[in-house]
Write a structure and sequence with these properties.
The complex is a heterodimer. By secondary structure, chain A is mostly beta strands. In chain A, 9% of the residues lie in helices and 35% in strands. Chain A has four helices and 32 strands. Chain B contains eight helices and four strands; from the N terminus they run αααααβαβαβαβ. Chain B has helices at 2-20, 31-36, 47-55, 60-69, 72-77, 95-110, 128-148, 173-179, and strands at residues 84-85, 115-121, 156-162, 181-188. Classes of the chains: A mainly beta, B alpha+beta. Chain A binds chain B through residues 220-222, 224-225, 227, 248, 250-251, 264, 266, 269-271, 292, 294-295, 308, 310, 314-315, 336, 338-339, 352, 354, 358-359, 380, 382-383, 397, 402-404, 427-428, 441, 471-472, and chain B through 72-73, 76-77, 89, 117, 125-130, 132-134, 136-137, 140, 157, 159-161, 164-165, 183, 185-187.
């Protein structure tokens, strides 16, 4: 493996992973076109003296640390446009990468306006390390972008340790020029992975139901707003509509492969479960009108779906294979049993039941055994959502007054902590795939219901949607 | 001759007496037109009776034909069915709710070909997810009562819309009470 970052002319050692078999989405989403190229993580510009053995690279040196007890301080200046027509992309890349790295709060991100005066280096060799050191940066990103033809770009990124002046991360990407944000998201995830062994969420998406297109349901009753399923990048950009049937389409959830979305649709006049294969433009109907079925949720391995159905006379939980086969009943109680979520290992299901008189959260084995109630101090609790490992937690919405707040139950200790506090009504929590964030629906902005994200401690609340009303988010892997 | 004149004079006298005074039993043929004539004779009144006929026609015979002839869209826009309302977090029909459903059952019996979907709805104070089940239970409760009142179950479907389709978009107690409802939709006739 070449230890040097390939020059733009070099094709050696490149592994083109183009388009991932992802065809164009029938609805017009072009996610493909990003070619991830040549991983050259260890690419020291000035080779460490007397270290010729590549057999045992010192991984410790790759991690950039800050002053003792403080997070490392990162700077992400604008990328350098190596061709004049790439100037806009260069600006986007720098800003988006800064935002992405800031989202996980693993690094202290130095505000970008404080280093606008530091001259941009055209080449890695020209990096003004003294100026970056003076700013207090521990790490600085050097990136370039070049249009290779009308539709394609080449993006090169290095991460420098300002003290050692060594490049600890160097990658090159080629692909479509229409998705510049995706390059920044990819770089952010890879930096988090390399520097923090952390699975970032920069390439994840949210799906939710929205009435933003302001259409009315066609049917015998007038003046009812259509809800359709939408997806959006985790940061609120790149919004796309998934369903187009002008009926009620609600409670969408991602399949673990992030290529399918199961949801509840009333397109046949009653609630039933549909799966949209968003990159193929195909639709699956696993329940297919056996009773009425709603609130689907995929098992963590994606092979099964748990859902609510009234097929036996009242709302109960069922589990089926993803293709609709092998339906098995999980709950059996004359009360309402609904709103399921899977444990990360797929063996248990948390759900809502009013069998004790009010809606409360329970946990039961997928086999229907070992039922136990976990909320005892709430007047009303719903939408349990099980955190991914290593967090052994279940978040839910609890009635705290006129509205709801998000609370988190710790399964080990039995303690419950509250993470929203009456700013509007806050419902429908959904964990990010790394468990460090939650998406939720809130009325806090005063303009309808909107999707927000926040840290698992309730801090760093960010508004994701602004158009129409938006409900029941789910966060993709 | 003298006798004929006497008879003629008598007739004239009788007719004259009738015209001036109360009807005499002899002239029984004349009075009826005299009594009926005063109302229809003047020209202005005719429009009034026409208006009255349209306004005050709560007579079942005619309105039944009107409903039976209306399209599904018109029927549902101005429905003969009334919604039944529920208490907060409740799917139990109270006395008022039972009275409404009972009235709706009478209409269903009057139009035995109609099929009806009972929609269960909730107010925004419940969560979106749980409300889907609560609305289902409200619709099922109404269906059960209709069946108990003698409506054939195969004419009835239920569907829950949770809090997705509020009747009143407001955020007040008044709006919420209107939104916790079972709404009747005629799906075929």
């Amino acid at each position: 493996m070449n230890a040097q970052l390939p020059t733009p002319n070099s094709q050696d050692g490149r592994a083109r992973l183009n388009s991932l078999g992802v065809a164009r989405w029938a609805l017009g989403i072009v996610l493909a076109g990003l070619g991830v190229v040549a991983v050259l993580a260890q690419a020291p510009q000035t080779p460490p003296p007397a270290a010729p053995t590549p057999q045992q690279p010192s991984e410790i040196q790759l991690v950039i640390s800050g002053e003792p007890g403080t997070p490392p301080r990162y700077a992400v200046p604008d990328f350098v446009a190596l061709s004049p027509d790439a100037a806009d992309i260069a600006k986007t890349l720098g800003q988006v990468l800064w935002d992405d790295l800031n989202f996980e709060r693993e690094f202290y991100m130095i505000p970008r306006d404080t280093y606008s005066t530091i001259p941009a280096a055209r080449t890695p060799e020209a990096m003004p390390f003294a100026a970056w050191r003076e700013l207090g940066a521990d790490a600085v990103v050097f990136g370039t972008v070049q249009k290779t033809d009308a539709n394609n770009v080449r993006v090169q990124v290095r991460l420098f340790n300002v003290r050692s002046r060594q490049s600890v991360f160097a990658k090159e990407y080629t692909g479509s020029a229409t998705t510049p944000r995706l390059y920044a998201h990819t770089v952010s995830d890879e930096i988090h992975q390399q520097q923090r062994a952390l699975r970032g969420v920069a390439r994840t998406k949210l799906t939710f139901a929205s009435d933003r297109n302001r259409e009315k349901v066609a049917g015998p009753v007038q003046n009812r707003d259509v809800k359709e399923v939408y997806i959006v990048d985790y940061d609120g950009e790149n919004s796309r509509r998934v369903t187009t049937n002008r009926q009620l389409n609600i409670t969408p959830v991602w399949a673990p492969d992030a290529r399918g979305i199961a949801y509840t649709s009333y397109r046949r006049g009653y609630p039933d479960i549909f799966i949209a294969l968003i990159y193929q433009g195909l639709q699956e109907t696993p329940t297919n009108g056996v009773g009425q079925n709603w609130l689907p949720i995929f098992s963590p391995d994606g092979t099964r779906i748990c859902f609510t159905s009234n097929r036996d006379g009242n709302p109960e939980l069922y589990v089926m294979n993803r293709d609709g086969s092998n339906v098995r009943r999980v709950t059996n109680n004359p009360a309402i049993d609904t709103t399921p979520t899977w444990s990360p290992n797929g063996t248990q299901i948390a759900f809502t039941s009013d069998r004790a008189g009010t809606p409360q959260i329970y946990v039961v084995g997928v086999d229907g055994l070992n039922l136990r109630r976990i909320t005892t101090a709430e007047s009303y609790a719903d939408r349990p959502t099980w955190a991914p490992a290593p967090f052994n937690e279940i978040a839910f919405a609890a009635r705290t007054g006129p509205g709801y707040d998000i609370k988190v139950f710790d399964l080990a200790s039995g303690d419950t902590r509250q993470i929203t506090f009456g700013e509007g009504s806050n419902e429908s929590p959904a964990f990010s795939p790394n468990g460090r964030h939650l998406a939720f629906a809130s009325t806090r902005a005063g303009r309808g219901v909107q999707i927000y994200t926040m840290g698992r401690d309730g801090k760093n609340v960010r508004q994701v949607t602004r158009d129409g009303n938006n409900y029941t988010p789910s966060w993709s892997n | 001759m003298r006798r004929a004149i006497l008879v003629l004079m008598l007739i004239v006298a009788v007719v004259g007496a009738c015209a001036k005074k109360k009807p005499a039993p002899v002239a029984s043929a004349a009075p009826p037109p005299a009594a009926a004539a005063p109302a229809p004779a003047p020209t202005p009144p005719p429009p009034r009776p026409v208006e009255r006929v349209e306004e005050s026609i709560p007579v079942p015979a005619i309105s039944e034909d009107g409903i039976g002839n209306r399209s599904l869209e018109d029927l549902n826009r101005d429905s003969p069915f009334r919604p039944a309302f529920f208490g907060l977090d409740s799917s139990e029909l109270d006395d008022a709710g039972r009275a409404v459903v009972s009235g709706n059952a009478d209409i269903m019996k009057k139009y035995p070909t109609w099929a009806v979907t009972i929609e269960g709805h909730c107010d925004e104070r419940g969560t979106a997810e749980y409300n889907l089940a609560l609305g289902e239970r409200r619709a099922v409760a109404v269906k059960a009562y209709l069946v108990a009142l003698g409506v054939a179950p195969d004419r009835l479907r239920t569907v829950s819309y949770g809090k997705e389709f509020p009747f009143d978009m407001g955020h007040t107690e008044s709006a919420w009470s209107k939104n916790r409802r079972a709404h009747f939709v005629i799906t075929s006739k």
